[in-house]
Amino acid sequence: MGGGEPGGRREDGAAARPDALHVIILGSGGGPLESNITSLLVRSVASGWRRGSVVSVDAGVQLSAIKKILKKSQPPELGETEEHSLPHTLTTGPFAGLEVPYKKPLANAGHILYSLVDTWLITHPHLDHISGFVVNTAGLPGTRPKKLAGLPSTITALKRNVFNNVIWPNLSDEENGAGLITYMRLVEGGSLALGEGESKGYLEVNDGLAIKIVSVSHGHCIEHHNHRGSGSAPSGYGRQGSVDFTHFGPISVGMGSNIGMLSPRGGGRTGSISGPGTPYGESVQCVYDSSAYFIRDITTGREILVFGDVEPDSISLLPRNSKVWCESALKIISGNLAAIFIECSYDDSQSEDRLFGHLQPRFVDEEMRSLAKEVIATREYQRRSTQASSANSDRRHSGDLKSLADKKRKRHGSDVGAMLVRRKTSEQSPSAITGPTSNPANQLLSRLQTEESISPRSNRVPLDSRTQPSAVSDDSPRLSAPTSGLSLSSAHSPIVTDSPHIATPTAELSLGDIEMSGPVTPQSHVSPVATALHSREGTADVDSELKIDTSTDNDLPLRGLKVVIIHVKDKLNDGPSVAETVREQLNGYETESRTGVEYIVSYPGQSLYL
């Protein structure tokens, strides 16, 4: 679903899955209009409108946006007639079903923000993602602290540069603060100690929702200073993606400026970073950390993926989107990933050297095609794994039948042998038979039983022979490695091998396994297949290969996935709306790429049931 009301049917007439997640867009823009900057409210539909049931993803705008929504949806005579007496349950608008206690929209907005919202998930500490929260803390009630969550580097930036008793009072519960805010430093990629199965690594933030955070890149800094960021750290999951440089002194004010965020092709200067293992003053590339959140409905397993500001992998000095797509592919195949919220700050008229770590339609399409390839390759891996498991089962079944026949022959031989032994021993004196081990018949039977104990499974086929083509029947499917296009093959074919044991979807079932080059862990997420896909010559073959088997809508790899565009920047001129231009350009790319996604350009006050 993607409409403003829950329930309904799909466009193809089939019954839609029950809505699990509800998203309200408070701010859809990326500036410069300060009344419309990034902020989303998310709740589990099953949790209703209970206290603490809502989380906010970023907080560029808060109270003013909620007030504006309520002003349109509240009955004008609220609290003045018997029909609309207080408390009153709203029947229209994004907050339909919510019981409001006050007459004025602003008072009810405060009730929503301070009673229903308990946790703020911050993608990165730029002002257009935090300003609403910071200013609104002036009205925070003192009943219990609000949770402010993010990467450790994000929390450090907020603590040292915002809630520092200089820019804003220290309202946190650290360093003798007021105690109205408590920081939550999230583990990059999710904590392995949390959750089981598909929810492994997810942290429950309320009774209905669990989250997992992953870091992404948001341009690089051209300032020369001791600066937080990723530097040249590995791009896999793990804490190395978010380095905390608290002990190196205050962070330069250049951190929060978009002017310092340039795409590498713009020819800007390299940044400077000094951190653990890096000599002081040594100049290295300083990549600015942003993040993306997987938000999971605990009841149904349905998820959405919400990005902060992000740049395309193709021009990033530290490409990290691929690991997000690798994990997303499994969720798409299972039908659990309902929507991706991703920024598209500019239309395609913006020059590449002035993207400042953001996306435009051609790069959004590029990222969606990367995701589509991950889905295609993962499905192929699952198909091969199923075939390999079936082939192994058939071989084991054949081996069991052969073993049974051998046992029958051996038992027949042992019976004949025992009979002959009994004839011979019957002529001997009974006193000669002193025990079981001295009985020739028992010795013979013992030897035969020892031979039988050697199971055909004990004689394992060497790995090299199991990976040879000769071990596969002629009708077994194989994929040859084309010189161009989508390559899903490997020198080590996964078709004939032991049935793989998949421990967790995010740990072992990844695109690296399609190459059967070893399990891909969160620390080594970059898949060989993804590397091969992105290293092909030209883009014509990429597009052509992607369209294979997409003659019908049912074959589209991302069919049913909604991609909600956020963070569109206004141009402040009389020209066409940037949001509308972005929509047209994205739909144009989708016509060519045929990934199957549905693009939705968000707007303030929009309500999405997913």
From TrEMBL:
UniProt biased composition (Polar residues): 427-458, 481-492
Molecular function terms, GO-annotated: 3',5'-cyclic-AMP phosphodiesterase activity; 3',5'-cyclic-GMP phosphodiesterase activity
Cross-referenced Pfam families: PDEase_II
GO biological process, one term: negative regulation of glucose mediated signaling pathway
Residue numbers spanned by region Disordered: 379-501
Start-end of Basic and acidic residues biased regions: 393-406
Domain of life: Eukaryota
CDD domains: class_II_PDE_MBL-fold
PANTHER family associated with the record: 3',5'-CYCLIC-NUCLEOTIDE PHOSPHODIESTERASE 1
This protein's name: cAMP phosphodiesterases class-II-domain-containing protein
